[in-house]
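Memo to structure team: turn this sequence into structure tokens by end of day. - J.P.
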Amino acid sequence: MPFFWIWIFIGMLLYGTGLFLIAYAFNRPNKRSSYLLQTTTGFSVIIPFRNEKRNLPGILASIKDLNYPPECVEFIFCNDHSTDESDGLPNIYSAKFNTHILHLPEGKTGKKNALEMGIACAKFPYVITTDADCVFPPGWLNGFDEEIQRTQAVLLTGPVVYTVQSKQWVQSYQQLENAALITIGAFLLQKGIPAMANGANLCFSRQAFIDCNGYEGNRHIASGDDAFLLEKMHEKYPGKVHFLHNQASMVSTPVQQNWSAFIQQRRRWAAKVRFQANNSAFLGQLIFLHYCLLMVFLFFWYALHLKLHMAAMILGMKVTSDLLFFALILPFFRLQFSWVMILRASLLQPILVPLIAVLSLAGKFEWKDRKYRR
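Reply from structure team:
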């Protein structure tokens, strides 16, 4: 039994050290040039949507407030067979920016098909994908333009922050989890591991997309339009794929409203892991193993009532590590630090992560009023 405690202690020590190093690196981005750049990059913004009548007014309002030359951007809305009259909104056509609405033909469905349809019609050299429930800050496109001019990147993963509509625990948990995933994904990308990206704020070269054969090889997977493209471009264009560490280009999107919707979304995300490259898949397995070990530890603590002071110390190490990690990263996301919420999330994680991993093995899940098979 002492051997068991030693391994748990070493694991938590590595966990805390790793989180601190990730947060420290995240807060030390590459220095940008101090000189002012003239806007030169043209963007085609692709917005796939299905049954988003409630959310479209928000994204349309934020588009009107963008501070970017109208001649350098276009917005392409791609309708994935909506049934709620989303495409019938009278103000979907912007008077300020060039706006198009495309409709997927019969026989084609899904986000990747909608994105490919929009990209095929794009006229500018860079494409930005986002979601219909997102809201942009005024300088959203300017940040991407500056980074492309500075680094000649072929793909940029942008920051995303979740907004909550209430103080429900499930919503606060998603907000913290997303901030952690964005941070860890940025750190791993900096270290040469293209593990995570968010399609709600993803920019890439249109020509590079064509040269990488787009979504070929993963169209049948319900999610992963972001992660698989990240892996392809990272392999084909080493040193040209970056995280955009810029608050001015951070988009906001609402959380899932309840536990059921949240778990369905995470099952959809988790189902793609087995198709990812070896490094990304190994990372996911390592995280899963870490939380499984914590579950085993909790079982021994509960079932055998052994070493109560050791159990308290191990849990204390995890909670302290999480508190420090979020204290360092939440200012970037402009989120308030709440030790109560972080404490709850820290204790919930060892249960929730293995649970979702197991549920993702199930044959079916539902998203956007459609049923998918794993």
